[in-house]
Amino acid sequence: MSLSPSLNPHVSVDCSIFGLNDNALCLLLINRNGAKSTFQNADNRFGLPGDLVRDNENLDEAADRILRELTGLSGIFLHQFKAFGDPLRIAKAKDRSWLEGVRQEPDARVITLAYLALIDTSKVEIKPGSFTKEAKWVPISEIKDLVFDHNEIFEAALLALREMIQIYPIAFKLLPLKFTMGDLQSLYEIILEREVDKRNFRRKMLHSGLVRALTEKQYGVSNKPARFYVFNGSSSEELYSSIVNLKMEGSITVFN
Amino acid sequence: MSLSPSLNPHVSVDCSIFGLNDNALCLLLINRNGAKSTFQNADNRFGLPGDLVRDNENLDEAADRILRELTGLSGIFLHQFKAFGDPLRIAKAKDRSWLEGVRQEPDARVITLAYLALIDTSKVEIKPGSFTKEAKWVPISEIKDLVFDHNEIFEAALLALREMIQIYPIAFKLLPLKFTMGDLQSLYEIILEREVDKRNFRRKMLHSGLVRALTEKQYGVSNKPARFYVFNGSSSEELYSSIVNLKMEGSITVFN
DNA sequence: GCAAAAGTGTTTCAGCTACACCCATGT
DNA sequence: ACATGGGTGTAGCTGAAACACTTTTGC
Fold it and tell me: Which helix (H) or strand (E) segment is A212 a member of?
């Protein structure tokens, strides 16, 4: 931060990075204390990965840079879903030590652009970024008190994810290349916080043309081995253009 | 601008304000040249109403303030839908005169939060704001070259409006208190750029419970007088919670 | 053989779609 | 009488929802 030549002290991006670990939806959180400050022992709080935007990069590039620092990967799925700009959003006393450890102008008002990111955790090894002491996956049910307004941002991200997963084929971004129908269904159930009917789910997914069955099956599982599937989509980012109907039972519609 | 005590020189809001005039969907555009600069004769270009965010207001308040300046009304429907932050978004040479007339730091990089606003044009008389030379409604089909990246922002606003109108009951924000089914249907057709079946539309709207029929009818029209309806919704802003299915024939769905 | 998850079809019902004619009014 | 937009009903079809039993494997 302080080393970077041309930062915009008033605009940041924060990333709500989702990933699956042991069948639990997790958020990637960081602890910044101690990176370069005298506040090692202040508190042990966590927050969303984020940074001020540099003058020579656009917002998407800033978000991509943050993801790259943490994962080593570029081009991870990112979606900017909302801006948070309350004048006092970073002014709470208990956030002060974090701020001072990280910002050159701790009193500057900062508007943040919130991004949603989806990661296949089987493909990355998380490493603390240049200014991060610790980075870890936290199951979303165990997320407690985050810095600043990051709880609010995370809640909004979860809502955005829940809506998007029913419109765009982005669930696959959270899964490894090969997955079973059970994997896919339980991912939907976790995000939607609701059970869906197995037969209806399979029919819908297969009929949508989004997945292709492989001949390969599970091996060594203590039940009937499940078939593997792959996402049948255009490799990169034509996801937004391929709108599909992924609404599950009980979804609300308005006007057809 | 220069008079305002505490502006954030790096964050602005821009409003795509939609309204109906003579059955045409229009955007409210302003011309800022001449307000306080020497550039009266520079060019005659128009742009979206917007301003830098003040240090003591949040983003929604800034957008509301801009609407209030132009219409005298507060509490107009506003929805923040995207941030635009290209480093060079306001750096085009032909935008220079506008910038210098308006900004204290014309070279500062500015990230803008784009808002969508819906106005009942029968209720407001537009007046140029404090720093606006001219404000006028322009049919969206006649919108030409706007300043900065405002064409891009407007296009995104129109897409956002088109999506939202099929999910949330916000079309009524564009109509007077009392309206006919024909008014409502033609509004949907204008925004969706597609015709919908009259009988299906009426059934859907009435069955949705969103409108209530009055006994009052048109008077003095040269055809069968149409019945008036009113929006049956909670007065204020529980619109977001009342999701309805307003998708029209031919809409795309993904997964139910 | 038992536990555990995979896999598979059918029936019912709501609601979307398509479609054509008469009505009330002003001119 | 004619032009204009308002107003109305139905039949067919698609797809969502609900639902239970058999299969394969490891232990």
Answer: strand A211-217
Q: Kind of pairing, strands A7-21 and A111-119?
A: parallel
- Rounded Cα gap, residues B99 and A254, in angstroms: 43
- Please give the residue that has the higher pLDDT: either B241 or A64: A64
A-B Cβ pairs (cutoff 8 Å, strict): 114
Q: Tell me the C-alpha to C-alpha distance, in Å, between residue A175 and each of A25, A52, A119.
A: 11, 30, 8
Measured CA to C1', the nucleotide nearest A256 is: C16
Q: Which residue has the tokens 């240090």?
A: B55
Alpha helices in A77-180 (DSSP H): 96-102, 150-164
Q: Which residue's C-alpha is at the least distance from the C1' of C5?
A: A223
Looking at the domain A7-164, which fold is it? Nucleoside Triphosphate Pyrophosphohydrolase (3.90.79)
CATH 1.10.10.10 domain position(s) in chain A = 168-256
Cβ distance of B255 and A249 shorter than 8 Å: no
| Alpha carbon distance A145, A42 (integer Å) | 15
Q: Name the token pair of A220.
A: 């060594």
pTM given for the model: 0.90
If we measure between CA atoms, which residue out of A157, A168, A179 comes closest to residue A187?
A: A179
Q: Which among A80, A244, A247 has CB closest to B83?
A: A80
Stated in angstroms, how far is A25 CA from D26 C1'?
28
- pLDDT interval class at A42 (50, 70, 90): low
Q: Residues with Cβ < 8 Å from A85, sequence gap 6 or more? A: A111, A112, B11, B53, B58, B59, B113
Above pLDDT 90, what percent of chain B?
67
Q: Where exactly does CATH 1.10.10.10 map onto chain B?
A: 169-256
Asked which of A80-89, A132-141, B124-133, B180-189 is least confident by mean pLDDT, the reply is B124-133
The chain A residues in contact with chain B (CB within 8 A) are: 8-11, 53, 55-59, 80, 82-83, 85-87, 109, 111, 113, 166-169, 204, 208, 243-249, 251-256
